[in-house]
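seq:
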Amino acid sequence: METPRISKWRPEAMVAYNFQSQFVDAIESGAKSHTVRRMSKRRHAREGDRLQLYTGMRTKACRKILDPDPVCLKVQSIVLEVGDESIVAAEIDGTPVNDLAAFASSDGFESLETFHRFWRMFHGVGIFHGKLIAWGTECHE
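struct:
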């Protein structure tokens, strides 16, 4: 019997995301209930999709972080302006994020400074356009 193809029209579609080990505890505890991902040719999750959250993908240390798989609650556009010294601004669906420190914390970072260092190291200084994918009980408005 052939395995059915999962597509965007099927509610049981699953999307896998890999996380660095530094985020695992926050995901497991529920403190981190979203991820920010750059725009790419690959399809991101859509509302209602099941999310498979992993750490160490494509290695022998690969493991699933949450089981059962959480459901994607919301997908929003996000723009971050990363400066030399700080995160200059952020917008979610065109609405400014007023409390950048609270947002950084909800994204699994200890402080706004560690959030900035991470973004500067992995994405550089400039404007970042991406998607905020939420799987927790709370979405950013």
